[in-house]
Design brief:
The chain has about 725 residues and is an alpha/beta fold. The chain contains 19 helices and 27 strands.
Length: about 725
């Protein structure tokens, strides 16, 4: 159906609706399984536009009732019979359904758009077959502070990775054709700036300049809109004095005007009502409803502020019928674009669980980052004797992280089980828990493997962590293991960046495995024994100390260039008297079981006129990458751009591209990038994009600290 016809059809449906039916459309109710009878009654009486399939504000951490397909079909039938308008059946399908894929921040480490897209195809297939037609994914909140528990749900500290992840996840859910029977609607959230919560305290105040907002927080949403995202969720936070739920300028002028979004906006959980919590912002629920609806929040998630107040607001003249109709039309158009009127039920059927598990394992392997490997300790021999200890060693579910609502536990293995399965000939000695006294049971092992990590209760919504480092009692395990005089491998199962300064020296090898999902444990075992290479690169900075936070690679340089990240500390004027600004490991970092070398980059022309860039040309850059070791391995070539002189302070490096190339020992490949307008320019405060003439340095290599570079010039 073309857009004009779709708009006419939405208009006709709207014209046939009564006022209560319109108010129903802008209302989302909760359906959590056990309230089936109430939900049936509510569909008859209220005729809601949507049901959220969740039972609490902490759905990401608490166990939720699993989805029952038959019940969803019955509720959808009922809605169709009552009003002829299908329900949006929404659930937080964040990084998996029955099979869980790596948590978003972990999967960002795979540096692989296609892989992420394929994973989300699989997620859609499973969730769709359970009758879910709308997901509250992707979460695109760029975050600089790992104390914020929700950093695990998003793409991390880099706006470009955010753009890439946004597109991959949206295409996975929505496919190329949102109206296809098996496509689900995606929801880009939380619009916008939520990741800047002050001090990493969730739901907290945010303060972001327009320049920063445009260049760091909005890019992933721009990419989401470009990828055709059907819905957007407004964020909980207040930004520069105005809560996003009532932020007309950002929700309407910027999101719809500048970014060109044409879908529907849903509030976050009870966020309309929460406008009364920001002291003095909304006097009561009625005022909150008026503020949110007129700002551009089309659907009210579960707090019933719209349901209870819209009629009165219309009668008082605080809200016009045209404003209500606008919201209803956007919801109807979304449902029409999804083809729900033609096929209100998602197709049933089975899926290939083994294929999804194999994909989950590939994704998890490719997200494991090798940080350290002294004397090539890894990969381990499968026939030696291995001592295992640590938190999460015997756990089966925690690598699924937060927001794993429908996990099939029969798919999961513990790290201990996975190691034994991968190396049946090895002698495995195990400590039963991670307390230090048990380490002595490992004294006959050749190598110790210690697993450190956080549980799903330690991350996600409302789960800030003040001290983002390995807790003290686990540090004691590391010290005790070190004193045994054996080589020690650390496996870090943190879905967020943690500071490594006080333990790093205790380990001979370190794998940052994140939260790898249903096959996270198997991926760790595969990497430990070399059945898979550690394929990931850090999608975030690992600080030395949490006292350095926020610490991120693309921070604007300071007046005396002392940020230290790039090794330029002037020790007469250090960042801190007790520490530099140098991280433990920088953004983009990750070793392999082989080694790579990059040639000096070349460009077809080092000077281009600005007009050529404006017309879509770019610097054609190439670099040769060689596998200089004696194992096959995948080189992850990263491109960073630095604008040397400009009308705004620019970061010292901005990631603008990456490439993965599998190379046999001794093999060389040429990697090419076109460095074009989007890579050379930046946004001004008003959202206009500028490319300024002048000099740029293009860095190409293994991580953000690479010195392998070439200078290019844009002439006027
Ligand atoms: C979270 C959202 C989530 C929603 C629905 C909120 O508390 O902030 O990310 O989609 O709940 O469960």
């Amino acid at each position: 159906m073309d857009e004009a016809m779709l708009c006419r059809r939405a208009q006709t449906i709207l014209e046939g609706m009564t006022l209560p039916e319109k108010i129903g459309q802008v209302t989302q109710l909760m359906y959590y399984g056990t309230n089936y009878d109430e939900t049936v009654a509510a569909i008859r009486e209220i005729k809601p536009g949507s049901l959220i399939l969740a039972g609490s504000a902490l759905a990401g951490n608490e166990k939720q009732e699993s989805v029952q397909r038959d019940r969803l079909d019955e509720l959808q039938e009922l809605a169709m019979a009552e009003i002829g308008v299908p329900l949006l059946l929404g659930r937080d399908v964040i990084h998996g359904h029955h099979v869980v894929f790596p948590a978003p921040l972990t999967s960002a480490c795979a540096f692989d758009k296609e892989l992420v897209r394929t994973c989300y195809d699989a997620v859609r297939e499973e969730a769709g077959k359970d009758g879910i037609n709308w997901t509250f994914t992707p979460m695109l909140d760029m975050a600089h502070d790992p104390r914020w528990g929700r950093i695990v749900e998003g793409p991390g500290e880099d706006p470009y990775l955010g753009e890439v992840m946004a597109e991959a996840m949206i295409k996975g859910f929505q496919t190329e054709d949102l109206s296809a029977p098996d496509a689900m609607a995606a929801c880009a959230k939380h619009y916008v700036g939520y990741g800047a919560s002050e001090g990493g305290r969730d739901y907290n105040h945010t303060e972001i300049s327009d320049y920063n907002l445009q260049n760091n927080y909005l890019p992933a949403f721009r990419s989401a809109v470009k990828a055709g995202v059907a819905t957007v969720m407004s964020a909980f936070n207040e930004l520069n004095g105005i809560p996003l739920t009532a932020h007309r300028h950002l929700l309407t002028d910027v999101l719809r005007g500048d970014l060109g979004f044409d879908g529907m906006v849903v509030s976050d959980w009870e966020a309309v009502q929460q406008l009364t919590n920001f002291a003095g912002f909304a006097r009561d629920r009625k005022e909150a409803a008026a503020q949110a609806l007129t700002a551009g929040v089309d659907m009210d998630m579960i707090d019933n502020c719209y349901l209870e107040n819209v009629e009165q607001l219309l009668a008082e003249g605080t809200l016009t019928m045209a404003e209500l109709d606008t919201a209803v039309l956007r919801i109807l158009k979304t449902k029409l674009r999804m083809g729900l009127f033609e096929h209100p039920h998602m197709p049933r059927g089975s899926y290939d669980a083994q294929a999804h598990l194999a994909l989950a394992q590939k994704a998890a392997e490719q997200s494991v980052v090798l940080l350290k490997n002294n004397q090539s300790l890894l990969p381990l021999s499968k026939t030696g004797s291995l001592g295992l200890a640590g938190a999460l060693l015997h756990d089966k579910t925690e690598l699924c992280s937060s927001w794993a609502l429908d996990t099939r536990e029969e798919y999961l293995r513990s790290i201990s089980e996975a190691v034994k399965l991968a190396a049946p000939q090895a002698t495995i000695l195990e400590a039963q828990d991670y307390l230090t006294q048990h380490v002595t049971t490992l004294r006959d092992a050749d190598v110790l493997v210690l697993v450190f990590g956080e549980t799903h209760w330690d991350n996600g919504e409302s789960r800030g962590m003040a001290e983002v480092e390995i807790p003290e009692e686990q540090q004691m395990l590391a010290q005790r293991a070190r004193r045994m005089g054996k080589p020690v491998v650390a496996v870090l199962c943190y879905a967020r960046p943690i500071a490594l300064g006080n333990v790093e020296h205790l380990f001979d090898a370190i794998l940052y495995a994140g939260h790898g999902g249903s096959r996270g444990a198997d991926a760790i075992a595969a990497v430990l024994f070399g059945d898979a290479e550690p394929g990931g690169r850090l999608a975030f900075t690992l600080p030395h100390s949490f006292g350095q936070l926020p610490l991120y690679y693309n921070a604007p340089p300071g007046a005396r260039r002392m940020n230290g990240y790039y090794g330029e500390d002037d020790m007469r004027m250090p960042n801190y008297v007790d520490l530099t600004g140098k991280p433990s490991y920088p953004f983009g970092y990750g070793l392999s079981y082989t080694t790579f070398a990059w040639s000096a980059p070349t460009v077809a022309a080092a000077t281009l006129p600005l007009a050529a860039i404006e017309q879509g040309e770019g610097f054609a850059l190439s670099v040769q990458v060689t596998n200089t070791g004696n194992r096959a391995g995948t080189a992850v070539t990263q491109l960073y751009v630095r604008d040397l002189v400009g009308s705004r302070v620019r970061p010292l490096r901005c990631l603008r591209g990456f490439d993965r190339t599998l190379l046999q020992p001794g093999e060389t490949a040429t990697v090419t990038f076109t460095v074009a307008k989007a890579d050379l320019g930046f946004y001004l405060e008003d959202g206009s994009f500028v490319v300024e003439p002048g000099d740029f340095t293009l860095y190409v290599g293994e991580n953000c600290l690479t010195d392998n570079a070439i200078d290019v010039t844009l002439t006027k």
